[in-house]
Structure formats: structure tokens, C-alpha cells
Amino acid sequence: MTRYNFQSMAEILQIAADEGLTLAGVVIRYQEDLEGKSREEVRRAMGERLAVMRAAARKGLHEDIRSPSGLVGGGGKLLEERRLAGQSLCAATTARAIAMAMAVAEVNASMGRVVAAPTAGSCGILPGVLLALEAEKGLEEDLLIDGLFAAAGIGMVAAGQASLSGAALGCQAEVGVAAAMAAAAAVEMTGGDAVQTANAAGVALQGLMGLVCDPVGGLVEVPCVMRNAMGAAQALVAADIALAGVQCYIPFDEIVAAMVQVGRALPPELRETGAGGIAACPTARKLARQIGIKTLDKDSLQENLSVASPDIP
After folding, report:
1. Which domain does 283 fall in, by range?
2. Are 98 and 25 in contact (CB under 8 A)?
3. Three-class SS of residue 44?
4. To 10 degrees, the CA torsion angle through 185, 190, 195, 201?
């Protein structure tokens, strides 16, 4: 077992305090011990993931892409064109972040290569925030790699204590956790300490608590792609709150536990079945039929669940 083994944010913060490390520093040492590799090797591997994120953002922003269903594609490019024209209502960093977040999510929907962060459905949030801060703040690549390690620490805790599946806990477990990861990365990259990094993650996740998973036609496209943009903006807000010194009174571990409780309380139609929420809107059902997807309503979903799992109340 690695000397830097941890299961909770409380343990990470204790290690960071004892050894004078940032959150990224703890995760890097964990990875070194786990893989038996040097710091340079584990950082190089993370740099390769960053390169994939860059390529996906570039493709989504500058190429004409469309998902096989035709439901999404080109939204990130339109946002980028609006930003370049000086028309965005958002501040510079946020305008970049939401364009790139949407662009990367659209690359995923069009069968392109992305980094699941923590899932493919929420893959745009972390690169959107990372690359926007790099461009607007002039950050070096080493700082972005630190940010990725900080984000990984948040994702590891969430995955260990909960689930990253929208089918299990709703979209809060995907977009919510991705926003928490991105908020932590933003704080790490801009000089925050481990406590501020954890605070940022907590603020982001509690702000998206209860977000349901209701994809139209069961495809990770509508409203998923736009939620990536919203998650990136949420992450930057959370990072600013933490860096300003505003305390997140509820510890991150407890927020994750609350996410589990809330997710389990969500009915099946709000957990990726396409039977509730946005997916159940008349227009959503019409769109699904147009692309040849049969959808479930609440009654047929319950019937299927009863056949598959007779003991479910």
C-alpha cells in the first residue's frame, strides 16, 4: 500500500498539512508510490492527457463537427466566434471556458477522442477551465499538469465514496463532480492552498446538488453538451469564492455523502433512462422518434424495472 494512500478529502488535507504539500502534491506522490515511477514519468503521463484535451478543444472550436444524430455540433464554435467578436456577455476567462467546454463535449458526441474527466458525458468542463485560464492568465503547462493532478484527487475521492454514473446518482455525479474537479484545478493553478482547493470543489458540487440525468433519446447530447458549458462557469465561480477566502462550511466528504443520499432518492426516470425530465418533454420525444429512438414513459419504465428486478419497491 502506498504511503500516501487516502480514501477521503480529510486524509488528503491531513497529509498536505503534515508535509506542506498542495492537493496536487499529495496526488503526485500517491501516483509515484502506486506505479513505482519517478515524478517526471507520472507528470509526463498526465501531460499526454492534457495533449488530448487540447486537441479535442481545437477540433471542436475550429472544425465543422456534428453528432451522428444531428442533435449537437457547432455550438462551441459559435460561442468562440461570438467571443472573438467581442460580443460575449461573460468575462474573458468564462467566455473562453464555456466555448471550449461545449466544443469538447461536442467532439465526444461526434465520436471524437476525449479524456473522461471524470466521464465522457462531462468531458468538456475540466479542459474548458484549464485551457481558458492558461490563455487568459498566461499559465505555464506545468501549472496545468498540477491542476490535472488536483482534479484527479477530487475525482478519486468522489469515485471512492460515491459513483460517477448518471445512471446511479444523476447528472450531479457527472457534471457536478466534473465541476468540482475543475474548480479544484483552477485554485491549484492560481496559487491556492489545499484547504482552498477542497473548498472550491465543495462549493461547486453543492451548487449542482440534485442535478438530474435526463438525456433526450438516451444520447449524451441534449441537454448534456450545454451542461458542460454551465459546469465550467460554475467551476470558475466556485474557485473565485474559495480564493476570496469564503469558507465552505460543509466538508467535501460530507457533500459527497449528501450527493449519494440525493442520488438514491431520485426516481429511475431521472437517472439516465430517458423517461423523465427534459427527455420526457413532447419536443424531446419527437426528436427521439425522428432519429429512430424508442423512448420510455414513466409507466413503461416501471414495467420494465419490475420484470428485470421484481423486488424493487
Report:
1. 277-305
2. no
3. helix
4. -30
271 DSSP assignment = B
For Cα atoms 118, 109, 57, give the angle at the middle one, nearest 5 degrees.
70
Q: Give 169-221 as a DSSP string.
A: H-GGGTHHHHHHHHHHHHHHHTT--HHHHHHHHHHHHHHTTT--B--GGG-S-
Residue 202: inside a domain, yes or no?
yes
Chain position carrying cell 486537441: 55
| 219 and 111 fall within a common domain | yes
Q: How many domains does the chain have?
A: 2
Confidence of residue 220 (pLDDT cuts 50, 70, 90): very high
Same domain, 207 and 290: no
Greatest distance between any 2 Cα atoms in the chain: 59
CATH number at residue 40: 1.10.4100
Contact 227, 130 (CB under 8 A): no
Q: Kindly report the length of the chain.
A: 313
Within 63-140, residue ranges assigned H as helices are 75-84, 92-109, 125-137
Encode pLDDT of 129-170 as tens digits.
999 999 999 999 999 999 999 999 999 999 999 999 999 999
CA–centroid distance for 193 within its chain: 21
Residue 265 sits in the same domain as residue 283: no
